Every structure is written in structure tokens, then in C-alpha cells.
Amino acid sequence: MPVEARDLTHTYNVDSPFESTALDKVSFSIADGEFVGIIGHTGSGKSTLIQHLNGLLKPTGGTVIVDGLDLMAKETDKKEVRRRIGLVFQYPEYQLFEETVFQDIAFGPKNLGLDKEEIERRVRDACKLVDLDCDQVGEKSPFELSGGQKRRVAIAGVLAMEPGILILDEPTAGLDPYGRDSILNLVRLWHERGKTILMVSHSMDDVARLADRILVMNHGRLEMQGTPDEIFSQEARLRSIGLDVPAVTTLAGELNRLGFDLPPHIHTMEDMERALASALGGRPAAKKTEEATAHA
Amino acid sequence: MLKDITLGQFFPGDSVVHRLDPRVKMLMMVAYIVVVFLVKGFLGYLVLFAFLAGATLLSHIKPKFLLRSIKPILFIVVMTFVLNVLFTRGEKLLVEWGILHIYWEGVRFAVFMSLRLVFLLLGTSLLTLTTSPMALTDALERLLKPLKAIRFPVHEMAMMMTIALRFIPTLLEETDKIMKAQTARGADFDSGNLFARAKAMVPLLVPLFVGAFRRADELAMAMEARCYHGGGNRTRMKVLKVQRIDWYASGVMAGTLCLVLLERLL
Ligand SMILES: Nc1ncnc2c1ncn2[C@@H]1O[C@H](COP(=O)(O)OP(=O)(O)OP(=O)(O)O)[C@@H](O)[C@H]1O
Ligand SMILES: [Mg+2]
Questions:
Q1: 3-class SS at A215?
Q2: B186 closest CB neighbour out of A15, A17, A82
Q3: Which is higher by pLDDT, B105 or B209?
Q4: Which of A66, A226, B71, B177 is most buried when burial is the number of CB atoms within 10 A of its CB?
């Protein structure tokens, strides 16, 4: 299911003193099975952009085409599009409402009109993905859970609809390191099932590690797009639009200034390990690599 | 859908109208409402229109934006018009069609009634557009101060109003967000029969209420942490002061009132 945006433009509060253009002629396309990261300063239009991809916001100009369906065309069934594209909002835990966790996760599949067994199967599958014990937590009220657990329930609610494309808006905002890792891990698991992922993030480290391709937003425009190597080699340009490079990239630069001779394009912890190991003239112990990968 | 609500929306600016003392503006509003109900004929409406147009021009608010505030009550205005045209009896018959009788007096009355509603709404919208909710409640608190003598909790009322006004946009924003999130999960808010629609509101209302209570809790905590303890012995950061332009504005308002009264008596 490829997604394509053509000259996507969105103006909030048209014809009022509060008029503001949040998206300005944004065009890109996303292929099946890609993991795309979206980065950009606060207010650059990332959330506005992703809400267009499943027809929640209507563009002021341009259009979005999902799997050949033109979202601007009148005859396009928006529900069909939303079945294919799952959207996890920023702070999704505030959308929980059912009496039990199980019922809340089942809300999406129920709206798809699935039968009972299929709903149950999907809820259990989604629970497993987000690392929640369905039998134990399933009967609790979602309001009794901790913030991190609530977030995982909310994400499970979207996963249970089994969308081919999953879009997440800053899924790790405000979580502790363990919570962050578990969310990023489930996103990776979902991607390994062959699904397309779009993830908005403020963490350059996460994006560098997970994404195949990166879209960079700046004041409503698509400033750059490319592989992590292409994007993060333009440090000055990123800094000028309020962004940064991953911490290890900065570290590599510092080390080179101190006389090391590390190769370019070090953006993840793994890159750094490999580079350091060969620079220091040895291979890292096998056990250590394993640990590092598990950590990454 | 939620975007059309102009009444109660503040549009920051630095015009003469913005700078008027909110108490004076509020009293002028009362006078304005009296004028709207006193106006009787064409000339009176002309005076009223001149007053409103002048105030709008001075406020630097786009007339088009101000006119939008009519949108939510357009239906009521049209209904008022139609009902008055159909059911007012008079002497000069214009149209007779079956049981329908339309009189000249009816048309005239209907036009004036509708205009009255429109002027009322435009005036109040201009007030809220040019006066921040804070200034409005502040002014209200000052104007109602005499009621303290009979132990009416003026300050508490004003504080409650300030908070309510402050959170209207937040709640609207939140509603919009939750609605979108549930729509993304396949919820359908605008199809099906009445029962289905009422049921579809549950996924919207529960998170909205939970959020409102959470916010109220946090606000109370934040206020207490800053030692808020009600109205006793509070001084003000901004002390309201009546200035020369306030007198001028009141003068214009009084003039308008006199003209309309004159028209009515003559
Ligand atoms: N509902 C709205 N009404 C009016 N303006 C809005 C609305 N939502 C967003 N905007 C404006 O649109 C612009 C882009 O906002 P958006 O939420 O898309 O940014 P973002 O990149 O997601 O930011 P963040 O990283 O803070 O989440 C901002 O200038 C914002 O003020
Ligand atoms: Mg955002």
C-alpha cells in the first residue's frame, strides 16, 4: 500500500485573523514496507501532516493517494482508508474510555465489524505485541493503569485493527527509558511483519537507528528527505532549522578532532562500536556485541 | 464545526476600542442593549448602524470576521423573520395566498425584529472580540462590588467565570482531538439513528470528562501551591483607571441613546 502526498497544503482558520499555514506544498511518497521517520522542530507541521494521511484533516490544497485511492475524491470511502492506515496520536492514553482494557482494545476491531472470535484473537495478539498480560490486565479498568501501561493499551487498540500502514505521533513522549524501549521494540516487531511505519519523533537517536528514510519538516515545508546517512551528514543545515544529529555522530566528530580516524556516517551505537573496534585494532568480544545489540 | 464560534473569542489588538476601560465598555454594552430595544424606525436603525460601524472601524477588526458571528444564530434570525411575516396582522395587505396573508406591517416588523437580533449579536461579539476574558470578569467583579454588602461572593463568582472562560478553548481543542483519535479507530459520529448516535458519543464524552476532572485537579493544586485563598485582602496588578477616551466613548454612546430616544418620541 504505497502512500503519496502531492502538493499537500493546509491552512488553519482560513479567512480569520488567526489564519496560519501549517503545511506548504508537501510532496513525497512512501513505498510498501518502508520505515519512515519524520523529524522537525515544534510547530513544523508534523502532526498536521500525518492527520491528512488517513483523511482526518481535509487539505486546503493538493491531495493524498493511498493505495490508488484519492482522498480528495468524493467517491473515496474514508472508512476504508482508515481501515488500512492506523494512526496513533500523541499521548494516545487520553482516548481510553471503556470499562475494561480488553473492551478498549476491542473497540477498533468491533468498528470494523469483525466476528467475536476474530476480535478476541486480535486483542490477544495486540496485547502480546505491547507486552501486556491479556488475562491479568485485560479485565482491569484502563484508568487504574500506570501512564506507560495506558500508552501501551492505546497503541494495542490501534494494532488490533491490523493496519497495513502504522503511523505514530511521538509514541515515546514522556516515558521512562524502559517504557521507551518497549514501545520502540513493538514498533520494530510490527515493522518486521512487513508493515509500513511512519514515526514522528524528536529523538534523532531513535530515528537514526530505526528509520530507512527520513522526512525533515521545517515551517510547514518538506526541507529534506533521504536516508539517515544523507540527512545526518548535513549537520549545519539541521542545526539551522532547530534540529540536531544523533549523539554518537557528535561524539564521532569530537573523537576525530582528537586525532582518531573514524569513518563518516556514524549514526547509531552499532556504527560507533564497529568503527571504534576497527580503529582500536581489535574485534569486539562476541559477548559484548550481543549485549550491545540487545541494548540497541 | 467547532470553528464557527466567534462569540466569546478574543482577538488581541491595540486599537482605541481595545484600550477602553472594560468597566466602561460593559456599561456601554448595557446602554447599547437598551438602544437596540428602543429603536423603532428606519432612522433609528441608521443611527445604530453608524454607531456599530464606527466602533468596528476603530477596532481594526475585519467586518467580514465580525459578521461571521451571526452564523450560529442565522437559523433563529430566519425563523424570527418568517414567523413574524406570516403571523403579524395589519391593515395593508400585500399578498394573499390561500390561508396565507402577508401584511406590510408584518414585513416591516419582521425586518426590524431580525435586525434587532443581528445588532444585538454583533454588538456583544465586538465587545468580546476587543476585551480579553480576564478584563471582562475583572470589570464584572468591580461593577458588582456593591453586592458584597449583602455577602454575595463576588470575587469567587468572578474567579469561577474567569476559569470557565479560560477553559472553553481548551475543551474545544480536546474534543476535536479525541474525536479525531476515535475516528481513526473506526468510530462514526455522524451516521445512524438517534440512539446509535447517542451511543457513539460515549467514546468521546468519557475521555473528555476524565480530562476535565484531571485538569481541574491540577489547576486547584497549582493555585494552592501559589497560596491562593479567595478574595480577602487581594491587591491588583493592573488597577483600572477611567481615562479621557473613556469619557469620549461614553459621550458618543449617550448621544446615540438620545438620538434613538428622540426618534422614538417624535
Ligand atoms: N487545531 C489547530 N488550529 C489552529 N492552528 C493549529 C492547530 N493545530 C496546529 N496548528 C498550528 O499549525 C502549526 C503546525 O502544528 P503541528 O501540531 O502540526 O506541529 P508539530 O510539528 O506536530 O509540533 P510538535 O512537535 O510540537 O508536536 C503550528 O504553528 C500550530 O500552531
Ligand atoms: Mg505534534
A1: strand
A2: A82
A3: B209
A4: A66
Check CB contact under 8 Å for B185 and A157.
yes
DSSP state of A284: P
Distance from Cα B176 to the centre of ligand 1, integer Å: 13
Asked if the Cβ–Cβ distance from B186 to A92 is below 8 Å, we say no
Q: Is the CATH number of domain A3-234 2.40.40.20?
A: no
**Residue to substitute from A94, A110, A153, interface B, most B β-carbons within 10 A:** A94
A127-138 per-residue burial string, b: 16 or more CB within 10 A, e: under 16 = bebbebebeebb
The pTM score is: 0.79
Ligand 1 atom at minimum distance from A45 CA: 18
**Using N-to-C axis directions, what is the helix angle for B202-225 and B154-184, rounded to 10°?**
140
CA of A107: which chain B residue's CA is closest? B185
Are B184 and A111 in contact (CB < 8 Å)? Answer: no
Inter-chain residue contact B11 with A17, CB threshold 8 Å: yes
Residue A100 grid cell: 475494561
Q: What is the pLDDT of residues A178-223, one digit of tens each?
A: 889 989 999 999 999 999 999 999 999 999 999 999 999 999 999 9
Per-residue pLDDT tens over the stretch B36-86? 988 888 888 999 999 999 999 999 888 888 888 888 888 999 998 998 888
Q: Which long-range contacts (CB under 8 A, 24 or more apart) does A76-79 make?
A: A78/A54, A79/B186, A79/B188
Taking the CA of residue B22 and the nearest CA in chain A, the distance in Å comes to 22
What is the spatial distance between Cα B84 and Cα B86, in angstroms, rounded to a whole number?
5
Q: What share of chain B is helix, strand, coil (3-state, %, to 5)?
A: 75, 5, 25
Q: Is there a contact between B169 and B215 (Cβ–Cβ < 8 Å)?
A: no
HEC per residue, B156-214: HHHHHHHHHHHHHHHHHHHHHHHHHHHHHCCCCCCCCCHHHHHHHCHHHHHHHHHHHHH
Chain A residues with CB under 8 Å of B62 CB are 17
Q: What ranges do the domains of chain A cover?
A: 3-234, 249-295
Q: Which residue has the cell 465586538?
A: B126
Mean pLDDT calculated for residue range B237-262? 88
- E-state strands within chain A: 3-12, 20-30, 35-40, 61-66, 69-70, 85-88, 165-169, 196-200, 213-218, 221-226
Which of B185, B209, B215 best probes binding to A when mutated, by most A CB atoms within 10 angstroms?
A: B185
Burial class (CB in 10 A: 0-12, 13-18, 19+), A245: buried
| β-pairing verdict for A61-66 and A69-70 | antiparallel
Q: Report the distance separating Cα A171 and Cα A206, nearest Å.
A: 11
